[in-house]
Specification:
Blueprint (H helix, E strand, L loop, with lengths): L21 E9 L5 E9 L6 E7 L9 H11 L3 E5 L17 H16 L4 E11 L1 H12 L5 E5 L4 H7 L7 H21 L18 H10 L39 E7 L5 H10 L5 E6 L6 H4 L6 H11 L2
Parallel strand pairs: 3-4, 3-5, 5-6, 6-7, 7-8
Antiparallel strand pairs: 1-2, 2-4
Helix pairs in contact: 2-3
């Protein structure tokens, strides 16, 4: 186990303004792999008793000071105790080597957040939900499939990271392409081991090439400008380790999504390049407590921080209905 002593920033360093309607503090918890995670906790002011709670993370390569914190603070204003956490190996959370993602460990991060919330005096353990943004939308569904303590799950602008890694965007990569990718990644493993360091894949491309796809321009407009830049965000800076994607190549995270019995709300933007991830994931879900909501005119990144596009009223209603 790591020593659990994390270097947590005390000043407000979020990409969004602080709300006067909630109390905020830093907390830590650990997962069952012994990694200590850092989170921001938001709690509605002046409220007593046991509250419904929501654990939030994402996007993939972001930190809790970005979109997940914005969601957490907004939902705390609406009566929920919320935590926005940095996944293992990223942000202020522990774990070595740095900047690694794992379909197993990152799913566990959500379950570990449930551990933490379940034993708090100010949380009702029967009223806990999760919310995953972008790549953590897929992790959230995977967590909901294994953790029966999760009573409701929301995914926003979801990516299925195992699918996009193994198949490429729009499923354009075939078996030969995967083989070439495996060769590249395994050659990088040898090089990393020889050097004793981990080469980084690079964050969002900067400066933008003229022929960049619109969704790359959208990512740049969030991660590389004052709108969403954060010094600890992988996407804003050097990115993940190059070999980090290896475990996603042969570990489909939505294998048991069809067995989720708890409530699910899947939200995506109409104009998002990634919309097909949510639509196809929703097809796997069974039961009347499952809902797909497409936001007219919204891009992928609009659902990171565009309060006019994020359906907070609907999210609040959904969690209120199923966390009661």
């Amino acid at each position: 186990m790591d020593n659990g002593k994390l270097n947590l920033t005390e000043e407000w360093d979020k990409t969004f303004p602080k709300s006067e309607k909630v109390d905020h503090c830093k907390i830590t918890f650990h997962n069952r792999y012994g990694i200590t995670l850092a989170a921001d906790m938001y709690k509605p002011k002046g409220v007593t008793g046991k509250l419904p709670a929501i654990a939030i993370s994402g996007p993939f390569g972001a930190v809790k000071e970005q979109a997940s914190g914005f969601y957490a603070q907004t939902l705390a204003e609406r009566g929920f105790l919320t935590i926005a956490f940095d996944p293992s190996y990223t942000g202020e959370s522990g774990g070595e080597p740095r900047y690694v993602a794992s379909p197993d460990i990152n799913t566990e991060d959500f379950c570990a957040a449930i551990d933490f919330l379940s034993i708090r005096e100010d949380v009702d353990p029967e009223r806990i939900g999760i919310l995953g943004i972008c790549g953590w939308g897929g992790m959230a569904l995977n967590a909901a499939a294994i953790d029966t303590r999760i009573k409701a799950t929301v995914t926003a602008t979801m990516y299925d990271m195992s699918r996009v890694t193994a198949n490429g965007y729009f499923d354009a990569m075939d078996a030969d392409g995967r083989y070439e990718l495996r060769k590249q990644l395994n050659a990088q493993r040898t090089e990393d081991y020889r050097k004793g360091t981990y080469a980084l894949a690079g964050g969002v491309i900067d400066p933008l090439p003229d022929d960049a796809p619109q969704f790359v321009k959208d990512y740049h407009a969030y991660y590389k400008t004052s709108r969403g830049y954060h010094k600890r965000s992988l996407n804003s800076n050097g990115g993940w380790n190059k070999t980090s994607s290896l475990s996603f190549l042969n570990m489909p995270i939505l294998e048991y999504a069809g067995e989720i019995r708890s409530a699910i709300l899947v939200i995506h933007g109409e104009k998002a390049h990634s919309r097909y991830f949510s639509e196809d994931a929703f097809k796997k879900l069974k039961g009347e407590n499952k809902e797909l909501l497409i936001i007219p005119g919204a891009s992928h990144v609009d659902l990171y921080d565009n309060a006019a596009m994020i359906p907070f009223d609907k999210i609040t209603q959904f969690f209120s209905n199923y966390l009661k």
